[in-house]
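Moderator note: this is an archived Q&A kept for reference. The question asked for a predicted structure of one protein chain; the sequence and the answer are reproduced below.
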Amino acid sequence: MKNCAVLWALGLCLAGASLASAQTPAADSLYKRLGGYDAIAAVTDDFIGRMAADKELSVFFVHHSADALKRTRQLVVDQLCMATGGPCVYIGRDMKTVHAGMGITEAHWNAAVQHLVATLAKFKVPDKEQKELLAIASSLKNDVVDQKKM
């Protein structure tokens, strides 16, 4: 699905990424520091809304049923929850498979990152947590952006 491609490209598709190894045992997980499930869901909803309203990125949202869009949203929430150390389980496919043939360009990636940054600012996510989320997203870039279009 094209809408999956952009969402994941924006940094919310975080399968396989984990900050647990980077944290000390006594530190709260990024999941907890972000505010837990409800906060992650709210950020996801705002982020998806920004992308769907973007003229360049909206192409990834058209021609999908309401049910397909809801499923994609839930996969993003679950993936972000899991990647930040939360209790969720992501059941979607890997990012390379999801994005193969989608034609996501460097420009799409950059636009999505800008929307993610704007969403995080709207929710007043502290700088440290923003950097951690963006690092997770960046680790997926090569699986999301069409290598011929980089």
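Archived answer notes: Residues 120 and 130 are 7 Å apart (CA to CA).
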